[in-house]
Amino acid sequence: MSGQDGGQIQNVVVVGAGAMGHGIAQVAAAAGFFVTLNDISEESVEAGLARIRDNLDRGVARGKVSEFERDDTLAHLRGEADLAKAAADADLLIEAVPERVDLKHQIFRTAARTAPAHCLFASNTSSIPLVQLVGAVPRPEQFVGLHFFNPVHLQPLLEIVRGDATSEESLQQALDFARRTGKEPIVVRDVAGFASSRLGIALGLEAIRMVQEGVASAADIDKAMELGYRHPMGPLKLTDLVGLDVRLAIAETLAREIDPVRFAPPQLLRDMVAAGKLGKKTGSGFYNY
C-alpha cells in the first residue's frame, strides 16, 4: 500500500547500502518513514542493515539512543535486492551509489518502470549536476538532489539541489523530508559541486598540494584549520573519511564542469588513489587507521 496522502512521504527507498546509503536509510527509519534498503545483492543489503544495527547498538551503549528508539528504527527497515520490487511502493526514492552517471541512469530507469507516478526521485550526488541525470526519470519536475553528509546519522546538514525543472511541490516535499529527519536544509541551484562540495574540495585540494610541496605535515595542516579556524575536522582527515577516490572523482567533475585549473587534482592525490590508499576505508590515507 502506498504511503502517499496529499503529498506526504511515508515510503522511502534508498538505493545503495554503502557508506552513505545505509546512513540515509537509518535516519529516515528513525524519523518514522518506512524504509526499503536496496543494493545489487542480498549480501550487500544485509551488510548495510548490519551497519545500521551496529550504529544503533553503539548509540544505545553510549546513552544517545534508547532501546525503544533502536527497536522502532529497525522495525521501520527492510531490505530488498530487487530494485523493481523495492520501487513499487516508493513515495521517495533516493539514489546513493558511486559517482558514475551511467550507473545512476541505470538505477533511475529501472526504478521508474515500477515506481508510482507520484514518486519523488532524488540523487545523493555530491558533485554531478542534476541536468546530467534528470533525463533518466520520467517526470523531471519530480527530481531533486538530496546531498547528505558522512556520517549521515551525526551530520546535521542536508543540501537540497533544485534542478531547472524541479517543481515547487517537489522542493517542498524535499524540505519537509529534511526537517522530519532532523536535518537542517539549505537549497542550492544546480551547478556542479553545488555549494558544499565546491567549497570543501577547494580547501581539500589546496591542503593536498601543501603536503605535496612539503609546506607542512598532514597533521599540522589539519591542526591549523581545527585550532586556527575552528573547523571540527581538518581537510586531510576529512579527505580520509570521505575517501580519496571520492574526492578525486569530485575534483575531476569540477575541473571538467567549472575550471580545469582551479580544480585540477594534485598528482599526490592521483598517486595515492592508484596505490589503493583511499583513506579510512582501506586503513591508509594521509593517516593510518
CATH superfamily of the largest domain: NAD(P)-binding Rossmann-like Domain
- Give the distance, in angstroms, between the N- and C-terminal Cα atoms: 45 Å
Q: Strands of the largest sheet, in order across it? A: 3-2-1-4-5-6-7-8
Count of runs of 4 or more consecutive helical residues: 11
Assembly status: single chain
Along the chain, the helix and strand elements come as EHEHHEHEHEEEHEHHHHH
CATH class of the largest domain: Alpha Beta
Q: Note the main sheet.
A: 8 strands, mixed
Mean pLDDT: 95
Taking Cα atoms only, what radius of gyration do you get, to the nearest Å?
19 Å
Number of domains: 2
Poorly predicted parts = 1-6
Which architecture of the largest domain does the CATH hierarchy give at level 2? Answer: 3-Layer(aba) Sandwich
Q: What is the overall shape? A: globular
Number of strands: 8
Query: How large is the share of residues in beta strands?
Result: 5-15%
Reported by name, the CATH topology of the largest domain is Rossmann fold
Pairing-aware structural class of the strands and helices? alpha/beta
Helix content: 40-55%
